[in-house]
C-alpha cells in the first residue's frame, strides 16, 4: 500500500494518527483506539520505501544526523500531515498525524462559548494546555479562524511544523514554520515586533526565553495565544513557575497576574455516540485569581475553582458533569478523566452544586482521594 493511499484512508476514517514500526503491522488510531490495517509486519526497508515517497535525500540526511525528523506534509484536497520520524533500536519508526484541510468551527467542536470572547481580546495571554493528542491545535486553529472571520488585523503564527493552513478572510494571517521560514523560535520572536502583529500564536512554550517573550508581548498591547504541555490550569502555572529560578519568581507572579487572560485545559473523552468529545477547564483571570497569582498561591487557585469562587471559570469536574447531563459520556469515563473523583461524585449526587470549603476539608479528613492542590509543587 502506498503512502498516498494511507493518507486517503486516514481522511476517510477520520483517523488521527498512522504508525510505522519495525515488526508490527501498519496501524492507524481512530477515536483513540489503535487498529492494524493489515497483518503484514513491517521490515526496516519497507518503512524507508514508504517514507521515500515524500521525503527527499536532505530529509533522510537530517534524520540520520539528528536521529529524528519533524516536518509537515501538505496533501492537496485532503489536508496536512505532521510527520515525526525517529530511530528506535537502530531502525526508522514514524508517526504521522492527520490535520484536516478545513479549520472546524468553534460551535462544531462543542467548546465553551467563552472561547469566542477570549479570542476577541485586544491584549493579554491565553494558554491552551493539555496532553499530546488532546486537541489543543484544533481548538486554537478554530479560535484564530473565528477571529479571522470577524475582525481585521494581523495574526502572526510561529509553528513547528505548520499544521492547519489558514485562508485570509478579514484578517491577514502569516504562518512561519520554524526551521524553514525562521531559523529558531527565539529569532522569530525577536523580529515579531517589527511585523506589526495584533495576535501572536506560539506553537509551544518549552522554555524560559519563550515564556518571557510571550509575557512581554502580551503586556505590550498584543494578544498572545500559546500551548503548553500540562494536565490542568494548576499544573500549567507550576510548569511556568518551574522555568524561573526562585529569586525571579516574585517578578514573574506580578507579570503573570497582569498578563494572563485565561488558561484553557482540554481532554478528549470517549463519547457514548461514537468519536470523542472535549472536556474543557477554563481558568479566567478575575481579580481574585489575579491576587492569588500575584502571591504565587497555586493550590488556592485550584480550590477557588472547586468552590466556584472564580466567576466564569469552569473546572474539569463541572465540565464532565455537564457532559454526563447531556448524555454525551458515561459516568465511568467521566470519573476516570476527573482530577478529583470525589469532587465529581459530589456534583453528580448534588445536581451540580459546588463543594463548600468545609465539606471539602471534611472529605479530606475522612481520607477521601486527594485533589490536585494537595500534591501541587510547593513554591
Kindly describe this structure.
- Residues 367-379 have low confidence and may be disordered.
- The protein has two domains: 3-100, Beta-Lactamase, CATH 3.30.450; 107-375, P-loop containing nucleotide triphosphate hydrolases (Rossmann fold), CATH 3.40.50.
- The strands form two sheets. A seven-stranded mixed beta sheet has the order 9-8-10-11-7-12-13, with helices on both faces. Strands 3-2-1-6-5-4 form a six-stranded antiparallel beta sheet.
- It has helices at residues 3-13, 44-51, 57-66, 114-118, 136-150, 185-192, 208-218, 233-242, 249-259, 287-295, 298-306, 316-325, 331-337, 341-349, 357-365, and strands at 17-20, 27-30, 33-36, 68-75, 79-88, 91-100, 124-129, 153-159, 171-177, 199-202, 223-228, 260-270, 276-284.
- It contains 15 helices and 13 strands.
- It is 37% helix and 24% strand.
- The longest helix has 15 residues, at 136-150.
Amino acid at each position: 500500500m502506498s503512502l498516498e493511499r494511507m493518507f486517503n484512508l486516514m481522511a476517510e476514517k477520520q483517523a488521527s494518527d498512522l504508525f510505522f514500526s519495525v515488526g508490527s503491522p501498519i496501524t492507524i488510531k481512530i477515536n483513540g483506539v489503535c487498529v492494524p490495517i493489515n497483518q503484514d509486519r513491517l521490515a526496516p526497508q519497507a518503512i524507508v520505501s514508504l517514507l521515500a515517497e515524500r521525503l527527499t535525500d536532505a530529509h533522510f540526511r537530517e534524520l540520520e544526523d539528528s536521529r529524528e525528523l519533524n516536518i509537515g506534509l501538505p496533501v492537496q484536497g485532503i489536508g496536512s500531515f505532521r510527520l515525526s520520524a525517529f530511530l528506535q533500536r537502530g531502525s526508522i519508526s514514524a508517526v504521522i498525524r492527520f490535520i484536516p484541510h478545513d479549520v472546524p468551527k468553534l460551535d462544531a467542536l462543542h467548546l465553551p462559548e467563552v472561547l469566542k470572547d477570549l479570542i476577541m481580546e485586544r491584549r493579554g495571554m491565553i494558554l491552551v494546555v493539555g496532553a499530546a493528542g488532546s486537541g489543543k491545535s484544533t481548538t486554537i486553529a478554530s479560535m484564530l479562524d473565528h477571529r479571522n472571520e470577524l475582525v481585521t488585523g494581523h495574526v502572526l503564527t510561529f509553528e513547528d511544523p505548520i499544521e492547519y493552513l489558514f485562508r485570509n478572510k478579514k484578517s491577514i494571517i502569516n504562518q512561519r514554520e520554524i526551521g524553514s521560514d525562521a531559523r529558531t523560535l527565539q529569532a522569530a520572536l525577536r523580529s515579531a515586533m517589527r511585523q506589526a502583529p495584533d495576535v501572536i500564536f506560539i506553537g509551544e512554550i518549552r522554555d524560559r526565553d519563550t515564556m518571557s517573550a510571550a509575557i512581554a508581548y502580551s503586556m505590550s498591547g498584543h494578544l498572545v495565544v500559546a500551548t503548553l504541555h500540562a494536565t490542568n490550569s494548576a499544573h500549567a502555572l507550576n510548569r511556568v513557575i518551574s522555568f524561573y529560578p526562585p529569586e525571579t519568581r516574585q517578578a514573574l507572579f506580578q507579570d503573570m497576574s497582569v498578563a494572563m487572560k485565561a488558561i484553557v485545559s482540554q481532554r478528549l473523552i470517549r463519547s457514548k455516540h461514537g468519536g470523542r468529545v472535549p472536556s474543557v477547564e477554563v481558568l479566567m483571570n478575575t481579580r481574585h485569581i489575579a491576587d492569588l497569582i500575584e502571591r504565587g498561591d497555586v493550590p488556592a487557585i485550584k480550590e477557588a475553582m472547586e468552590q466556584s469562587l472564580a466567576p466564569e471559570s469552569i473546572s474539569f469536574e463541572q465540565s464532565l458533569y455537564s457532559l454526563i447531563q447531556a448524555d454525551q459520556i458515561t459516568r465511568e469515563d467521566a470519573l476516570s478523566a476527573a482530577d478529583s473523583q470525589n469532587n465529581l461524585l459530589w456534583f453528580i449526587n448534588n445536581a451540580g452544586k459546588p463543594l463548600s470549603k468545609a465539606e471539602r476539608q471534611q472529605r479530606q479528613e475522612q481520607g477521601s482521594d486527594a485533589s490536585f492542590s494537595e500534591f501541587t509543587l510547593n513554591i
